[in-house]
C-alpha cells in the first residue's frame, strides 16, 4: 500500500471490550485499518461485528479500549461525534424517506437556517460534484421511493459523503442487490478507495471479501481471530477461522431422477388492492425428489408466491394442483388444512411469521401443530388441556435431532440465535413427514456452521423423495442446492433452467428481468 | 404456563420485592399528598389499613369489592392476551346486571341454587352481547376496540337508564330501579354460609360470588396457558402474522376473545346484583369495569396477579371509605388520587426500580 507509509492508519482499535449483561459482545478487539484501503470484517452472526461498528459509529460506548481515528485518540459518544470525525455509515436497512427527493434526503437533518432553498441549492452543487467524482449516477431530483434498491443504496453513500465521510462503513451492503448491482457497488467502492477514502465492509459473504477487499479481519465469539491480507488467504481458510473448525462449503449431492409431479402452479396471478400486478401468469411444477430453487432479487414476487402456496394469501386467479388435485380457495384456516395434507412451510421471515418471539421454545415448536392429538391429555377432561410433558418432550426431540443450542425448551424463543431458531422451525415443519416442503430464505441470518447443517437436511429430504420448493435471494445457495432453477423478476418467471445449464451470469441477467429464450435442454 | 425466562432477577425479587417497592413508593407519595393538605399521613395509613383489614366486617367488604375487581380484571386480561384492549368492562357488566335482574325477578319462589346457573347464563350472554359487536367490528372492519368499547359504555348507560326509568321500574316508586328480587333468589352471604357451618359471623356483603370468582380465575388460567385455544388466543395477541401462518382463524379468535371478556365482566353482576343489591339500580357498577383495567395491568394479566391486585384495590376501596369517613379533609376524591398513585407506580412505572435491582442482583460471573 503506497499510502500507508505517509498516512497514519484511518482507524486503530485497541483493546475494545463491550459487555451486555452476561454477554461478552466484544472482547479485547484490536486491529488497524490502513488509510485508503478496503477492509473487510467477517464473522458469523453474534460474532460481534455489528456491536463493534456500533461502537465506532457512536451508538454504544465501549466498556474499555481506545479508538484512534487518523492517528489521534478520540472519544465517540454519539453518531454526531462519528460524523464530525469523518466516519459515515451505510446501514443494512436504509434510513431514507421514500416521499422525499434524493436531494432532500441528503440534507435531511443538516439543513441550515429557516429557509430550505439556500441549503438545497448549496447541496445540489456539492451533490453534482460527488456524483461526478465517484460515478454514482444518481438523479438529485428523483423521488427516493421510485428508485430501485441499488440506487437507494447509493443515496445512502451520497449522504455519508456529503457529511464529509473519510471512513465509510457498509453493513451487509449486497443483501438486497442483484449480482450485477453488487458488481457496480464494488466498482464504486474502488473509485472511492482510489480517491483516498477508507472503506470498512461488513459481510458474511466470503466471495465479496475475496473480490473486493485488501485486508480482512475475522471475528468469532466477540474476539478477533486474525487480520490477514486478502491476497494471502482463501475462502476455506476464512471459513475455518470464522467457525473454528473445518467447514464444508459445498454440499455433496448425488444425481437423482425426480418422481411424479407433486405441485403444479397454473397461470397464477396476483393483483393487489391498488391494482399492482405482483404475480403474472406464473407456471411451474415441483416433482418428488427434486429441489426447485426460486431465484430473484428480493421483492420480485417470490414471497407472494410462497404465501399463496402455503395458503396464507389468495391468488387473484390461477390454479394450484397438489398431487393432481386442485387446492381449494382460501378460507381462514386453509394454511392449517394444507399443513394437515403434508405441505410444510418454513417461512422467509421466521421472526415475524415462523415463531412467536416471547413464547418459550416449546410453544414456538408446536406453532401450527398445536391441535395434534398427541400433544393433549389422554382421557376425559384432560383431553381439553395440553400435556406439557408431551410438548416439552417433542421439543427436546427436535433439539437433540437438530443440535439446537442451548437445548433448553423453556428458554424464550427470541434468546436463541438465528441459526438455532431456524433449526427449531425446520424441525417442526419436517416432523410430520411432509410430501412438499416450501422453504423461504432457509439460511438468512444463520451462521455458517448451521448453514451447512440446514443445507444437508434439505438435500436429505430431497433424497428421501420429498418435493422441495426453495426460495432464496442467495444465488450461491440456489446454485448449490437446486436441481432446477426458476428465476423471477417483477412477478414474472423470466426463466426456468436446469442446474447444469445455470451460472451466475446467466441467472443474474434473468434476475434483472431479461427473459432468456429457453435452451433446448431446459425443463419446463 | 409461560415460564420463559424474561428477566435476570431472582424470582422472589421479581414477584415479591419489586411490587413491594412499587407499592411503598406509591404510599410514600400518597403520604406526602396527605401531609400537604395538613393531615397526618401516619394516622391516615393506620385508619386505611385498619379500615381495610382491621375487623371482620372490614375484611368482608374488602373481599367483596375484590370479587368484582377480579371478574373485571380477568375480563381485561383475556382480551389483552388476544392483543385487544377491552375498555368496555363497565358497560358489559352494567348490561349483564339487567340479565341477572330479569332472571331473578322472573323466577320467584325458585331457590337460589336453581336460579344461579340461569342467572349466570343471562349475565354471560348479556355481557358477551355487549362485547361481541365491538369484537366483530374489530375483526371484520378493523374498527379499534378501544374506541368502540368506550362508545358501548355510553350506549350501555343510555340503554340502562331507559330500561330502568321506562321499562322495568317498579310500579309506584320514583327511583329508577327495579323491584326487589324475591328473597329466595338472594345468593348466600358469608354470614349464611358461616351459620350453616356453625360460625357466627357479622353481616357483610361478601357472598358466594367470591368463590365463583376464584373458580373463574382458575378456569381462565387453564384456558389461557393450558389449552390449544388459549394458545391460539395468545398467538394472535402476540404475533398475528404467525397466527395467520399457522392457519388460525384470526377474525373468529378476536371475536371469541371479546365474547369471553364480556362474559367475565358480566359475572360481576352475579356478585353485586344477585349477591348484594338484590335489585337493579342505576349505575350499580360504580366504576368496577375501569378499576378492572388497573387490576389487570398491575396483576400483569395473570390470574394470580389479578387476584392479588384485586385484593389490594378492594382494600384501598374499603379502607378508603373508612378514611374518608374518619378524616373529613380526606375526601373520596383524595382516595381516587391514592388509587391513581398506586396504578401509576405499580402499573405505568412498574419498571422504575427494575434497573437498579437488576444491577444489584447481577450475576457476578463471566
What does this structure look like?
The complex is a heterodimer of chains A (524) and B (366). Chain A is of the alpha/beta class. Chain A has two domains: 2-243, 3-Layer(aba) Sandwich (Rossmann fold); 261-511, 3-Layer(aba) Sandwich (Rossmann fold), CATH 3.40.50. Chain A is built from 18 helices and 20 strands. Chain A has helices spanning 2-6, 49-56, 79-84, 102-107, 116-133, 149-162, 179-194, 206-212, 235-243, 302-310, 334-340, 350-354, 361-364, 388-401, 418-430, 448-463, 475-481, 504-511, and strands spanning 11-20, 23-33, 38-43, 64-69, 72-74, 87-90, 167-171, 198-203, 215-220, 223-229, 261-271, 277-287, 290-295, 317-322, 325-326, 343-346, 436-440, 467-471, 484-489, 492-498. In chain A, the strands form four sheets. Chain A has a six-stranded mixed beta sheet, sandwiched between helices. Chain A has a six-stranded mixed beta sheet with strand order 16-17-18-13-19-20, sandwiched between helices. A four-stranded antiparallel beta sheet of chain A has the order 2-1-4-5, covered by helices on one side. In chain A, helix 14 packs across helix 15 (418-430). The model of chain A is unreliable at 518-524 (pLDDT under 50). Chain B has helices at residues 11-36, 41-53, 56-81, 89-106, 112-141, 145-167, 190-197, 209-226, 228-238, 240-245, 250-277, 288-298, 303-326, 332-348, 354-360. Chain B is 73% helix and 0% strand. In chain B, 50% of the residues are buried. Chain B has 366 residues and is mainly α. In chain B, helix 2 packs across helix 13 (303-326). The radius of gyration of chain B is 21 Å and the shape is globular. Chain B has a single domain, classed as ABC transporter involved in vitamin B12 uptake, BtuC (Orthogonal Bundle), CATH 1.10.3470. Chain A binds chain B through residues 19, 21-22, 24, 310-312, 332-339, 345, 347, 352-360, 363, 366-368, 370-371, 375-376, 384-386, 388, 410-413, 415, and chain B through 1-6, 8, 222, 226-228, 231-232, 234-235, 238-239, 241-242, 244-252, 362-363, 365-366.
Amino acid at each position: 500500500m503506497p499510502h500507508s507509509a505517509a498516512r497514519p492508519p484511518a482507524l486503530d482499535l485497541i483493546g475494545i471490550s463491550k459487555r451486555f449483561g452476561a454477554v461478552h459482545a466484544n472482547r479485547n478487539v484490536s486491529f488497524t485499518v490502513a488509510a485508503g484501503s478496503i477492509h473487510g470484517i467477517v464473522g458469523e452472526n453474534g460474532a460481534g461485528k455489528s456491536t463493534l461498528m456500533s461502537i465506532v459509529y457512536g451508538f454504544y460506548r465501549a466498556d474499555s479500549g481506545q479508538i484512534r481515528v487518523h492517528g489521534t485518540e478520540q472519544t465517540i459518544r454519539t453518531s454526531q461525534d462519528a460524523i464530525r470525525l469523518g466516519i459515515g455509515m451505510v446501514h443494512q436497512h436504509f434510513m431514507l424517506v421514500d416521499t422525499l427527493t434524493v436531494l432532500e434526503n441528503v440534507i435531511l437533518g443538516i439543513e441550515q437556517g429557516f429557509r430550505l432553498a439556500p441549503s438545497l441549492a448549496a447541496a445540489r452543487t456539492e451533490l453534482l460534484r460527488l456524483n461526478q467524482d465517484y460515478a454514482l449516477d444518481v438523479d438529485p431530483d428523483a423521488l427516493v421511493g421510485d428508485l430501485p434498491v441499488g440506487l437507494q443504496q447509493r443515496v445512502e453513500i451520497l449522504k455519508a459523503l456529503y457529511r464529509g465521510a473519510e471512513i465509510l462503513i457498509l453493513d451487509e451492503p449486497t443483501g438486497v442487490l442483484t449480482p450485477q448491482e453488487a458488481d457496480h457497488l464494488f466498482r464504486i467502492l474502488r473509485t472511492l478507495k482510489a480517491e483516498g477514502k477508507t472503506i470498512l465492509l461488513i459481510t458474511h459473504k466470503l466471495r465479496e471479501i475475496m473480490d473486493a477487499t485488501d485486508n480482512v479481519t475475522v471475528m468469532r465469539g466477540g474476539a478477533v481471530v486474525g487480520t490477514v491480507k486478502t491476497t494471502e488467504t482463501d475462502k476455506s481458510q476464512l471459513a475455518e477461522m470464522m467457525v473454528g473448525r473445518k467447514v464444508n462449503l459445498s454440499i455433496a449431492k448425488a444425481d437423482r431422477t425426480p418422481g411424479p409431479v407433486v405441485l403444479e402452479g397454473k397461470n397464477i396471478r396476483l393483483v393487489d388492492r391498488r391494482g399492482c400486478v405482483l404475480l403474472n401468469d406464473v407456471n411451474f411444477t415441483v416433482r418428488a425428489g427434486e429441489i426447485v430453487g426460486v431465484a430473484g432479487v428480493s421483492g420480485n414476487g417470490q414471497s407472494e408466491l410462497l404465501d399463496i402456496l402455503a395458503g396464507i394469501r389468495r391468488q387473484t386467479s390461477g390454479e394450484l394442483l397438489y398431487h393432481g388435485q386442485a387446492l381449494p380457495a382460501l378460507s381462514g384456516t386453509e394454511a392449517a388444512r394444507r399443513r394437515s395434507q403434508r405441505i410444510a412451510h418454513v417461512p422467509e421471515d421466521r421472526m415475524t411469521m415462523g415463531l412467536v418471539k416471547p413464547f418459550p421454545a416449546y410453544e414456538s415448536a408446536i406453532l401450527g401443530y398445536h391441535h395434534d392429538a398427541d400433544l393433549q391429555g389422554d382421557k376425559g377432561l384432560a383431553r381439553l388441556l395440553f400435556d406439557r410433558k408431551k410438548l416439552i418432550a417433542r421439543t427436546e426431540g427436535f433439539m437433540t435431532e437438530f443440535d439446537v443450542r442451548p437445548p433448553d425448551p423453556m428458554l424464550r424463543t427470541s434468546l436463541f440465535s438465528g441459526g438455532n431458531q431456524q433449526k427449531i422451525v425446520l424441525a417442526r415443519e419436517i416432523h410430520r413427514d411432509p410430501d412438499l416442503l416450501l422453504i423461504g430464505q432457509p439460511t438468512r441470518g444463520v451462521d455458517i456452521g448451521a448453514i451447512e447443517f440446514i443445507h444437508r437436511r434439505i438435500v436429505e429430504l430431497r433424497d428421501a423423495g420429498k418435493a422441495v420448493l426453495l426460495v432464496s435471494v442467495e444465488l450461491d445457495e440456489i446454485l448449490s442446492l437446486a436441481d432446477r432453477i426458476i428465476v423471477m423478476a417483477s412477478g414474472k418467471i423470466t426463466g426456468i433452467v436446469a442446474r447444469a445449464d445455470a451460472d451466475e451470469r446467466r441467472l443474474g441477467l434473468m434476475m434483472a428481468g431479461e427473459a432468456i429464450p429457453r435452451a433446448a435442454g431446459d425443463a419446463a | 404456563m409461560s415460564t420463559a425466562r424474561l428477566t435476570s432477577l431472582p424470582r422472589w425479587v421479581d414477584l415479591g420485592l419489586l411490587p413491594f417497592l412499587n407499592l411503598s413508593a406509591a404510599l410514600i407519595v400518597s403520604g406526602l399528598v396527605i401531609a400537604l393538605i395538613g393531615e397526618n399521613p401516619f394516622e391516615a395509613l393506620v385508619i386505611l389499613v385498619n379500615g381495610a383489614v382491621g375487623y371482620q366486617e372490614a375484611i368482608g367488604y374488602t373481599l367483596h369489592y375484590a370479587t368484582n375487581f377480579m371478574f373485571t380484571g380477568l375480563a381485561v386480561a383475556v382480551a389483552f392476551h388476544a392483543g385487544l384492549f377491552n375498555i368496555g368492562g363497565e358497560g358489559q357488566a352494567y348490561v349483564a346486571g339487567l340479565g341477572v335482574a330479569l332472571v331473578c325477578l322472573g323466577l320467584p319462589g325458585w331457590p337460589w341454587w336453581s336460579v344461579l346457573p340461569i342467572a349466570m347464563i343471562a349475565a354471560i350472554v348479556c355481557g358477551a352481547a355487549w362485547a361481541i359487536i365491538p369484537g366483530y367490528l374489530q375483526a371484520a372492519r378493523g374498527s379499534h376496540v378501544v374506541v368502540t368499547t368506550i362508545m358501548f359504555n355510553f350506549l350501555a348507560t343510555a340503554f340502562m337508564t331507559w330500561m330502568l326509568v321506562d321499562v322495568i321500574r317498579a310500579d309506584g316508586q320514583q327511583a329508577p330501579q327495579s323491584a326487589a328480587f324475591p328473597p329466595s333468589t338472594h345468593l348466600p352471604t358469608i354470614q349464611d354460609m358461616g351459620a350453616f357451618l356453625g360460625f357466627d359471623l357479622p353481616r357483610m356483603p361478601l357472598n358466594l360470588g367470591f368463590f365463583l370468582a376464584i373458580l373463574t380465575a382458575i378456569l381462565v388460567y387453564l384456558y389461557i396457558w393450558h389449552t390449544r385455544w388459549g394458545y391460539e388466543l395468545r398467538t394472535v395477541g402476540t404475533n398475528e402474522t404467525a397466527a395467520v401462518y399457522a392457519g388460525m382463524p384470526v377474525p373468529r379468535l378476536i371475536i371469541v376473545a371479546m365474547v369471553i371478556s364480556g362474559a367475565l365482566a358480566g359475572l360481576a353482576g352475579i356478585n353485586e346484583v344477585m349477591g348484594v343489591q338484590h335489585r337493579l339500580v342505576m349505575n350499580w357498577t360504580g366504576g368496577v369495569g375501569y378499576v378492572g383495567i388497573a387490576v389487570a395491568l398491575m396483576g400483569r394479566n395473570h390470574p394470580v396477579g389479578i387476584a392479588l391486585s384485586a385484593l389490594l384495590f378492594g382494600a384501598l376501596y374499603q379502607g378508603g371509605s373508612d378514611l374518608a369517613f374518619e378524616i373529613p379533609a380526606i375526601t373520596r376524591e383524595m382516595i381516587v388520587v391514592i388509587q391513581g398513585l398506586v396504578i401509576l407506580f405499580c402499573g405505568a412505572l412498574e419498571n422504575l426500580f427494575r434497573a437498579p435491582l437488576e444491577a444489584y442482583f447481577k450475576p457476578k460471573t463471566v
